[in-house]
Each structure stands twice: as structure tokens, then as C-alpha cells.
Write a structure and sequence with these properties.
Helix content: over 70%
Largest sheet: none
Organism: Halopelagius inordinatus
Membrane topology: Multi-pass membrane protein
Order of helices and strands: HHHHHHHHHHHHHHH
Number of helices: 15
Number of domains: 1
CATH topology: Na+/H+ antiporter like fold
Oligomer: single chain
CATH architecture: Up-down Bundle
CATH class: Mainly Alpha
GO cellular component, one term: plasma membrane
Shape: globular
Family: Belongs to the auxin efflux carrier (TC 2.A.69) family.
Radius of gyration: 18 Å
Strand content: under 5%
Subcellular location: Cell membrane
């Protein structure tokens, strides 16, 4: 499938989720069931199948790890500078975290898996695991500190470790390290489930999108979109290239970091004192715009 067809396929699936939500075909209960399948079954299956047969020394490299952290923290610093003049804490906190917090799981990893080879997919799984353990606690800490929320950081952050992709990644790397095999029947079943990660996740994202125009601020939303889906992949390309990374690392790293703002940031915003209307709009606009920017990214990386 060509890059243009793939992005068209993504747009159709996102649109399907939006239409299904607006017509009531996918209500909140059905959406939650689809999300459960994607988050607890399809994504863990994809993470495990992409890592267990790959040489661990070839997928966990210094340039992958340090490149990921460098891009994330560079974008945090840039986000603080760009959004420093926003007066309201609730607005400023949301703008900052949504300028770097990427949708690694529901868009990044499935897209890498459907576009690039097994090595890049394994590296994307590493980015999903390590990136989640980095960006989620960071987002929680920033929202709590900026909004002065009366919430325990420890209680919020510990939930990250419980996400199913973490044990799946650990299991895959363990199998890789010890050279353990998986029975062919089980492997085929896991691969079939993993193959559903992209379509189901995209429908879920589409069904979760909503734009609350009452909180629409063109300048703030525009700056978040500019940082997240335009600047961040460019910074990622510069950082991974400067480190002399293998091409599979560049493919995985840039694509994952080019993903739009994660839907989960809207949930954290509701819990930790941010502006939910702005958060909803940012997720919506970055996701829609990213269809075009990801087309450019994949066209360059393929």
C-alpha cells in the first residue's frame, strides 16, 4: 500500500469513528469496549510480536533512547518559551503538555508497524514503553505543579506502570534476551490480533474526538499545532540524524514523535485542573492536521 493510500485509509477510519459517534452507532459503552480491545489486547499483542524475535542489542540502542529523551525535553523547553505569555494557568498548562505529548500507542506504533519493517516496529515498541514512562509522569507533574492541583503525583504516576503495554514489552524483551520461541499457532493468533491495532485504534480515536468551539482560541491552538505536528517531527529528524542513528531508528523515532497529541491528555486535564475545552480542541485539530503531516513524514522516510 502506498503512503498516500495508507493516509487515506487512516482518514477513512478516523472519519468512520466520528460518523459512528455522531449517529449513535458507537455510543460511549461501545467506544469503551473498542478502546478496551485496542488497549488491552491489540496493542500488547503488537508490542510482544514486534519484539520477541528481534535481537535485543539491535533494537535497544543509545541513539534510540537518548534521542527520544532529547527530543521530548527539548520540546518541553520550547513549549515553555512559546506559551510563557499565556495568562491563565489552566490554559498555559494544557498548551505546554499538548505541544509535546504524543499519541504513541493508538497512532504511532500501529502506523510504524503497517509501514516499515520489523526492526523499526520493534524500536517503535521500545519508544512506546520508554516514552510512556517518561512523558506521562512528566505531563502529570507539569499539570499538577502549574495548576497547583491538590492531587498526589505518586498515585497518578503509579498507574502508568499498570498499563498493559509495559508488561508486554518486558515479556517480549525477555523472550528476545533468552532466545525463547513461541508456538506457531500462538504466534499466528497474536499476529492476527496485533493486525487489528491500527484500524480499531483509529476508529476509537475518531469516536473520541470532539471540538468544543466555546473554548476555541486560534492563537493558542495554532501554536500547539505548530509545535506538535510540524516542529516536533523536524526536531526529531535533526536529533536522530545528528546522533548517527540507523535508518530504522530514524523511521521509528520521527514517525512516533510526529503523532498528534494523545487523547489521554484530555483525561489528565479534566483530573488535574487544566482547561478541558482547549484540551479537546487541541486533540481534535492536531489529529486532523497530522493526517497531512504524517503523509509528508512517511513519504520522506519510506
Amino acid at each position: 500500500m502506498s503512503v498516500a493510500l495508507k493516509l487515506g485509509y487512516m482518514l477513512v477510519l478516523l472519519g468512520t469513528g466520528l460518523v459512528a459517534k455522531s449517529t449513535g452507532v458507537v455510543d460511549e459503552t461501545r467506544r469503551d469496549r473498542l478502546t478496551f480491545f485496542a488497549f488491552y489486547l491489540a496493542l500488547p499483542a503488537l508490542v510482544f510480536t514486534s519484539t520477541y524475535a528481534q535481537p535485543i542489542g539491535e533494537v535497544i540502542t543509545p541513539s534510540l533512547m537518548f534521542g527520544l529523551w532529547a527530543v521530548l525535553f527539548l520540546m518541553v523547553g520550547i513549549s515553555f518559551l512559546v506559551h510563557r505569555s499565556i495568562v491563565g494557568r489552566d490554559t498555559r498548562s494544557v498548551a505546554i503538555v499538548q505541544s509535546y505529548h504524543s499519541n504513541f500507542g493508538f497512532l504511532g506504533l500501529p502506523l510504524v508497524a503497517s509501514t516499515f519493517g520489523p526492526t523499526a516496529t520493534a524500536k517503535a515498541s521500545i519508544i512506546l514503553g520508554v516514552g510512556s514512562l517518561t512523558q506521562v509522569p512528566l505531563t502529570i507533574a507539569l499539570l499538577i505543579s502549574i495548576n497547583d492541583a491538590d492531587v498526589s503525583f505518586r498515585e497518578e504516576a503509579v498507574e502508568v506502570v499498570k498499563t498493559p503495554v509495559i508488561p508486554s514489552l518486558v515479556a517480549g524483551l525477555t523472550f528476545s534476551y533468552f532466545g525463547l520461541g513461541v508456538p506457531s499457532v500462538l504466534a499466528s493468533g497474536l499476529e492476527a490480533v496485533a493486525g487489528l491495532a491500527l484500524p480499531v485504534a483509529l476508529v476509537c480515536v475518531g469516536a473520541s474526538l470532539s471540538a468544543r468551539t466555546d473554548s476555541f482560541d486560534l492563537r493558542t491552538v495554532g501554536s500547539v499545532v505548530g509545535l506538535k505536528v510540524f516542529l516536533m517531527p523536524f526536531v526529531a529528524l535533526l536529533v536522530f540524524s545528528a546522533m548517527g542513528s540507523e535508518w530504522s531508528t530514524v523511521q521509528a523515532g520521527v514517525t512516533m514523535l510526529a503523532a498528534p497529541t494523545a487523547v489521554s491528555t484530555f483525561i489528565y486535564t479534566n483530573e488535574l485542573g487544566g482547561d478541558p475545552g482547549l484540551a479537546s480542541m487541541n486533540v481534535f485539530v492536531t489529529t486532523v492536521v497530522s493526517v497531512g503531516t504524517l503523509l509528508a513524514v512517511l513519504g520522506f522516510l519510506v
